[in-house]
Amino acid sequence: MVPLVIAMMFFFSVEAFAGDAPLALVVAVGPGKASGSYDVTLKVEKGAFFNDTDIEVLSGAGKAAAKLKLPSGIDMLMKGDQVKGNTVTVSKSPAVGDYISEPNGYANHAAAQADAGGAASAPVQAGAPASKPAVPANLTKSTPCPYTAQELSAALGMKLVGPKGSEMPFSGGLSYSCSLGEEKGFGTVFINQTIMPHDVLVASEKESSKFLAGKATYIPNDPDLAKWQTAQGDLSGVVLHYIRKGIMAEIRVMPGHDVMKDKARVEDLRNRVLKLRRLPLN
User: Fold this and answer.
1) Whole-model pTM above 0.85?
2) Choosing a second label site near 173 at 20 to 30 A (CA), which of 4, 100, 143, 191?
3) How many domains does the chain have?
4) Measuring CA to CA, which residue among 81, 85, 82 is closest to residue 69?
């Protein structure tokens, strides 16, 4: 899963995966870090947007194919979210009032605007803080970094330092992200958690799996719907996803490219990850 994730950035409901084209309004635009990229604040009107996916920008002048990269630690944006820091890579700068959707989701800007109710949100200045979404009460309790460096070091056979964690609330839950680095070497461990009502996570699990990069391989008879994520090219690591007691967890171990060539070491890491205490720890 991922930081799988992540942020996997929302009132979350199963209807978000009902099959209608997702739709988000551009409410602020700033320059991106790379040529052809733009820092965009989005307000999601319908459906869900996932990290590193193809999208389409709809403006009064027409359509433009684009790519969407969500802020670090966020795997998903859903209805009700207004989040800054999204990177849109496209041939021409988006403008406030444009919409984004999946490719061929809408015929034109007018159709998207009509489906959104025709109401444009108030523009947000680039760099201004986004409105803080309401988070449901009674969510499963956890922390951004539930494991200590000592526990993970012993469990994984890596000398890790850190951890560094962050929290991202959204309309429907919380997203936690944590990273630890190898003291001597290039290995990294990421722990990502999406915390929501358990039944909602389970209901959306199959659909969200379709958007995982690479390949998902389920572990037979696992009570937490655990699966390995593999075949991600340069991002390949030992990556386990599961859902347990209101937490969608991603344990991502990136031991370094050379280590991933060692099949015996990879298998050993998988066995070690499976033996980790599963979240939530309480």
Assistant:
1) no
2) 100
3) 2
4) 85
